Amino acid sequence: MFPTVSHFLQYLFGINLPLPFNTFGVFVALAFIAGYWAFTKELKRKEALGVLHPFKKTVIVGQPATTSDLILNGLFGFIIGYKLVYAMVNYSLFVSDAQSILMSLKGNIIGGLFFAGLFSYWDYKEKEKNKLSKLKNVEVTVHPYQLMSNLIVWAAVWGFLGAKFFDNLEYWDDFIQHPIERLLSFSGLTFYGGLICGGAAVLIIAKRNGIKPLHMLDVGGPGMMLAYAVGRIGCHLAGDGDWGIVNNNPKPFSWLPDWLWSYKYPNNVVGEGIPIPGCSGKFCAELAQGVYPTPIYEVIICLILFAFLWKIRDKIKAPGLMFGIYMILNGIERFCIELIRVNSKYHVFGLSFTQAEMISTLLVVGGIVLSAYALRNKNKLA
């Protein structure tokens, strides 16, 4: 497998190019790009249909750089320079363990001060170019799709926090034993935690800018399905532990590739399993027995579901119905995958279930309720 981008490049082209990028992180970024594209397309489409409307916003033109502007830009520049220069000076360490540098207090003071001054100076000069002796209030038109840059940043921040929070709840015993390591780790992210918290942040910001929650939810349905599929590619390629239970059953079809039926995830990023003979370095473990490669199953299923949602979006008129359908499809997909996936289980009143099974069940029920509500009140909600 490909725990880092360097492993992927070496496999494809036979070149050894040390890069400080892990495969999972790259695909998380690609997932946000895919979601950004789908969200933007839907916002533009709904505006063209008259469902969403541009709004007016008053901005002040001609302001000079304030002290707080210079301080904030300087602080941001210091953080960038503090880490960037240290990473460049210690590039080998950065390539082998980027997380230990990014999530630690290690850094370069001189680099931080240089970039702090550079960022503050740049902000000062830019504001000086447009400074006016008399400030102007200018009314500008903002289209819904132009909110996406702001929405995607808040979705990323709150989505990450939510994914970490739900993951630590799911693996509570391990969190109690290693709280600092789990909090500072980039691995260990729960999709539903990110969906709930990131989605809530998007809805709040959209509502503040005049977009009704049901319309925003409908915009997000197809995009979230696509983003999830892209993110799961990273899970599979990196081997991040989101695999299935042991599968020693014979292949049902001879033409089916072995890795699509039962896979040992060699060189997995979490280092789980037994040593690989002849392998040296950081990622040299593979599972003792082949397991269901559930991430790739989810990639295939969710791409099909995205195509379905994208196809029917023009036919859906009732606000909230698209997201209701998304909730039902997403819940069913994840519940079925959980049946063959390794996961921590809760035991309540004699019942055994995973966190994802519980949330996916609630999603299906909630999706049915939302769809019924949308269809019954489509004229009132439009």
UniProtKB/TrEMBL annotation:
Keyword hit for Protease: no
Segments crossing the lipid bilayer: 20-39, 70-89, 101-124, 145-163, 183-206, 296-312, 358-375
Single GO MF descriptor: phosphatidylglycerol-prolipoprotein diacylglyceryl transferase activity
Keywords assigned by UniProt, alphabetized: Cell membrane, Membrane, Transferase, Transmembrane, Transmembrane helix
InterPro entries the UniProt entry points to: Lgt
A Gene Ontology BP annotation from the UniProt entry: lipoprotein biosynthetic process
This protein's name: Diacylglyceryl transferase
One term under GO cellular component: plasma membrane
KW Cell membrane (keyword) present: yes
Family (UniProt): Belongs to the Lgt family.
